[in-house]
Amino acid sequence: MKVFGYTKKGGKHWFKSDPYADKEIESIIDPEGGSEVSLPTAIPSPFARIDLVKTAFKNIGKTPELRSYKRNDNIIASSEDEKLVSDSLDISEILFNIDSLKNRIRIIVWNRVEEIVKLKNGTPEHRRLAETLELYFDEDQKAYNFDLTDNFYLIECDHKIIGCTSPVTMFFASGNDLSHARIRLLSNDESFDNKYTPLYERDEHFQKYLYSLFRAYPVLSSRLKFFGEYLKRNLEILNKTNPALYDQVNRLLANDLQSTYSELDTGISGQTVELLYGITLRKRKKGDIIDRLKNSDFIIASDKYKGALTPLVLQNHLTKANFRYAEDEWDKTFRVPYFDPEADLSRRWLPGITLQYPYLTVSDFLETQLVRLIYPIYKEKFFDGNFSPEVGDDLKGYLLPLKPLFFEYFDSQDLVSTMAGKPKIDMIQGAAGSVKVVLRIPVKRDGEYISFERIYHTSSENNPLSADPEQKKGIIVEHQVGLTIFPFIKTGMPEIKAYYRTQLIDRDVFGAQKEAQFELRFFQDANKDPIPIEAKKNRRVKAADYVSSQYYVLNDEFDYVQIKNIIGGGASAMIIPRWNVYRPGNEVYSFSVDFGTTNTHVEYKTEADSIKPFDIKSNEIQIATLFHPDKLDGIRQESADDIYQLIDYEFIPKLIGKNEEYSFPHRTVLAESHSLNIDTDATYTLADFNIPFIYERKEDKDRIKSNLKWAKKERGNEKRIRAYFENLMMLMRNKVLFGKGNLKETQLIWFYPSSMKLGRKSQLENTWNELFQLYFRGTKKPVGITESLAPFYYFKGTNKLHGGAYKPVVSIDIGGGTTDIVIFQDNKPLLLTSFKFAANNLFGDGYSEYGAASSNGMINKYQPHYEKLLLNNNYPDLLKVLRAIREKNKSEDISAFFFSIENNPSISASRQYSFNALLANDEDVKIVFLYFYSAIIYHIAKLMKLKKVVLPTYLIFSGTGSKVLSVITTDMTILAKLSTLIFENVYQESFDVDGLSIETEKDMPKEVTCKGGLMSNEQDLDIELHKIKHTLTCLEEKGFDTLRYDQLDATVKQHVVDYIQEFNKFFLALNQKFSFIDHLNVSSASLDLFKRESAKHIRDYLEDGLAFNKKMDDVMAEDKELEESLFFYPLIGIVNNMITQLSRLSPITH
Amino acid sequence: MARLFLFAVGGTGSRVLKSLTMLLAAGVKPQSGRDFEIVPIIIDPHKSNDDLKRTVRLMDNYQAITKKVGVDNGFFATKITTLDHLGLTENKLSSNFTLTLQQVANTRFRDYIEFNQLSEPTKGLADILFSGKTIDKHGEPVNLMDIEMDIGFIGNPNIGSVVLNQFKDSDEFREIASQFSGEDRIFIISSIFGGTGAAGFPIILKNIRNAMNNSRLNARGLLENAKIGAITVLPYFNLENSEKSPIHKSVFIGKTKAALYYYLDNVNPSVNALYYLNDDFTGNPYKNDPGDDGQQNQAHFIEMVAALSVIDFLEIPDEELNTEDGVPVNPVYKEFGIRVDSPIVQFGNLEDRTEEIIAKRLSQFSVFQKYMKEQLKLSLGRQRWSLDEPAIPKQFTDDTFYRSHLTEFMNAYVEWLTEMQQNRRGFGPFSLESPLNAFIMGRDVNSKWFSGKVDMSDFDDALSKTVRGKTYQSPEQKMIRLFFNGSEELLKSKFGFKN
Known about the structure:
Chain A has 36 helices and 44 strands. By secondary structure, chain A is α+β, with helices and mostly antiparallel strands. In chain A, strands 15-20-19-18-17-16 form a six-stranded mixed beta sheet. In chain A, strands 30, 31, 32, 34, 38 and 39 form a six-stranded mixed beta sheet that branches. In chain A, a hairpin with a 6-residue loop joins β18 (435-442) and β19 (449-458). In chain A, α2 crosses α3 and α34 (1084-1093) crosses α36 (1128-1143). Chain A is rod-shaped, with a radius of gyration of 48 Å. Chain A starts with a strand and ends in a 7-residue tail after the last helix. By secondary structure, chain B is α/β, with parallel strands linked by helices. In chain B, β2 (36-43), α2 and β3 form a beta-alpha-beta unit. The longest helix of chain B is centred in the last third of the chain and has 23 residues, at 352-374. Chains A and B meet through β1, β2, α1, α2 and β5 of A and α4, β4, α5, α6 and α8 of B. β2 of chain A pairs antiparallel with β13 of chain B, so a sheet runs across the interface.
């Protein structure tokens, strides 16, 4: 028997049977095993897809695991069914998460009533379509609930329809290719992919939503029968596989739907998505996902970040297992882009899934370019990124390729510290010069981190690379830059104001990087904006100088620095200093500053330590260089020596001190850029100016300004003086900081010449006070002391004066420009006078307003000698220095250089370079020094006699100029004898048994002032100087105790000339009693010449002197009183003339 | 006379109609004794389909024969009237009995619904309802929306359902409506696994049941409650596997199942009698040809069985086919069984009832054709049955009736038989090339009084015996009726067929 049918009911011929229902249909066996997946629609209805999906739910709902299923070769549910169900759930889940997809998803309402009418009124084609739809709406309404809804909601993704509501299965998906809508929602399921996901493997929230919907509307279970059965089966599976969720689902209440989920609308407020009449769909509440993301293992572990949404940190190829992502574990197939072009993190979409939530990836933290330096980083001072050269040497270092964003999450110290839970960077140099940078970012999951990695390669002509943030690969760019921070110390105390200078040297002058132009930004960990830059100054520019130097003036502390080449596409990197930290102590520092015409000296003392010249010892180096100071080979290979040299030239030397290259006293000079416009620019110390410690040591490269002390008429002089003081002030302040001293208690003593006008003095005083207040906020005001007072206290304090309590002590301070005389009696200053007759009159250019070295005999005599000496002994650098100073044609500068050579630490066998020794052996010029000395003593004796002061017991000498004493003789007793003679001849009386002694510190005559200042006490200084100050007119015998300019008529002037001639006679008479030739090796030729020439031109010199000083003193009113003795005016001319003439007498003798 | 409006949808529809025509020509009739006029309507956009052409030609010849001789001659005993001959105003319809579809030639479905001019929401709806891909006549994948419709709906019955809804507005439907009377019946033949048939069946059914909403129709109420039978043919033949073809055997099964589910809810409840028919016999694969060049498939036993469902339907008493408000009361579902599952079915393999209905008639018609082919020219003008008035002279074979209509029909009949025999599963009740005594398989010649030999002279004798005392209106009518009666006599006397 054979029946041609499926009921298995036996029968004959055409017999009555049953309609084919599930049992029969299932029993139809596909001979090919159901392999056909892409089934063309088989349903003879325009609503075939709705039917297909309905049937699919029905079939899948019958399977044990809600997947395609065969029973005895009999297909219960095909893979096509599985796909249809999965796609339908995908649509549903997409709408549940619509807020994450708002810009991609659109809901379009199709209203049956409106649209059918529209179609019927249209073309015949449209009418036919309408009538077909209508026919099926009517005829098939029972099967599809067409009687329960008028509206169909079409779901569009990226402008293509992907699905639609179905009154029998909630949704059905389009049969078109939906790969454009492959979306990962929060879980690892991707919509419309080839992996069909049953409901129980989907987002738990989505599952709960569906159950809530059916709980709230029980009618759905009968109307959406197969969907309901699917849910039922799903719940059974949950019972076994996910008891927690099973429990939650069972506890759902009817009103949970409304309270837990938001209304789903079409985008038009109030236009809700209605599945069946009165049954509206809902969606996930906005905050819900975000709240859950807070539990992601990928949340960045940053205490610092305070934003609303803490970003995730994501990496490719995560090998760690079980990292919770959004709703699900991280899927290794997810690809994290190296770069997300969306700069606003909150508008980023998470990779793999579909959610707008901030996340961070490699290019957010790591630059695409790695800056290679030509030297290893000085890792004791700067964090070197844990650099390790696995391959190759460590001749070159690398800057941290970190972006500023990194520091919004971490402090710079987090990176440096090795504590757990902090980010860590490693930079490993590998093959072919590549560098692998691994940045490990701690994440929320305890003890875990995510690694950002980039391998930087060298770009070359053969292997040209470009910086592409989307690539893992980065490129290495080499920059020849140097960076130095001053001072390299932080207080961390807001009450202590910060003053920083940062020097940036750019030596990229060749090749691809020659256009590079760098800019620094300075950041505090606490603030994502850089600190304000008070000023940025360029002292050198590459175009002109083959190197650029840039200075940043900063008034805030900072934790890290960004360096950026601002030329398009230039590299950027971070620099993290390992700051010294100031710990305030109670050590009180006292400083004294002798700002001299030629040299300036600073001494300091602490309670613990004795008085000594200012120094920077190796344990208190104030600067920090990025390069390692002992590893300069790389720099030298590139001939980029400017990187370290310009620090000394333009900035601050590392060390200062007696046995160092630089020391105090130092020439009073200031360096500034040749291009500095002193008038218009706001200028800054250690940006526009610096004290060039290289002066007289190395060939200078800047505009060097000397004669700061007296050149008050020169434009910008005040600025320069201030800069000079400020530079010193900074050095002193930093010394206190590094020495853990008490800033506020610091004391400052400064000196001024007593001949200085009050206005000028108070100007200096203001400058000192102001700067001191700025840098120390001290409780004690700086103390200004007359230069001449201090030496006495030094000699007194060092017990060099015996007796003298009653008998006067004459302190003679011979500076470069002035000589100050103070007569002490009873340890108190009794009488004071001052005149501009000092060392510069011997070594300078007299009344010549501009340099006259070319006609200066002594210079002309000794310069060739020094040139030859330096050349023969191979000191080319010093020779250059000499020639450079010579260029300026200022005799005092040149001779100052001669004097400095023997103290230059780079000179060996310094004795033969000693200018003092040379001069001491120069028997021709010695007569002038003797004359110079005698004039001063004579003047003192005259004054003392006039003031009826008893004969002194000591002459004490200080000041740079007192070095001339040793030119005359190194035997102070001889000089004492000569002096005795002068006093006795003036006084016309003899010394008693105590006689006259001379005390000096011939090796450090300059330092005596400063030291003395620090040894004096307040009561010593409590003197009204003007009361004891006296100026000798030299015409007292003619009745002029004082003189005004308008009194200087021909007669008066003649009296002066007479007075000089009288002195000349007096001087030559000394030779009779005390043979200059015998005692002092004065050549007879010179003596003869002196005798002939010294009487000449006296009146002319007087006029020169008057004119010069009138101009210097800015004398407008003729009735102004002369503040200086006229005695020295002609002498200056005589000395100058004599030296020139005497120098020609004979060549240098050795 | 009551009519049966017979819709033959798609290729299978045409072939079943052909089988039915053969059965009717052989004299197969409902056993109820109630005659129906058959009004076939072929619905197939597949205009070049050879099956369709052959069927049309066959119907023409059938009608030409019955026009000449009437329908009470045993053979050709059922009136078949195509629509164009139905009404008072003949030739009102453009074609004979084939529903003409408008705007399908060289038209993509997208254009057919003027997609681009639709409103945005409707565009969206159409986009998703008609989403997905299918394969065009060149075997290339194409968007469903872009399918050209003139080669049938190529396995896309959802497209078909829209296009075939032209039926609703067709002149044919209106003609049917205007001709439909309460005693008339409707039968729809379709296959479930193709495109046209699967779509056409529900469309016709729904439009009839939904006639109340069609203001252009007469007799709407009658149509709504019409007695409707239908056969849905499930896959019954094997198909050559061809990558190029959109039609796959495996697809057949899947589609069948899907459609059956749809029918269960949306079709079954509207049909008074639904006939299911399939065959899972794995036989000769059919050539896989989607249509343009033909679907010239060999006739199949199952098609004949399907044709028998029409006969069966006509036998159901009116009272079992009640319909109220468009919903049939107690619809019936039928399946077909045979006694022996044989690869080549012979009469003996059929159930008695089936054999009873067809064996004698088909045997009669078959020996008639065999006689026509082998003996007629020898006997004409010689044998008594030929010479009796009205005489059938030798020249008879030169007339149009014989030469064209009858011979052509008979040739088609032989072809039909041959094809069914060669097909697998086959239907081979006759050994067509054998001498008469071995002609009917499984029927031993009655040898009681003769040596078991039967030949054409026995046939001549039977005819001459039959012709005695009979009057005929014309040689043509005599020819048909005489051979019906004569063959019946021969089969009774010599082959043991019963009355």
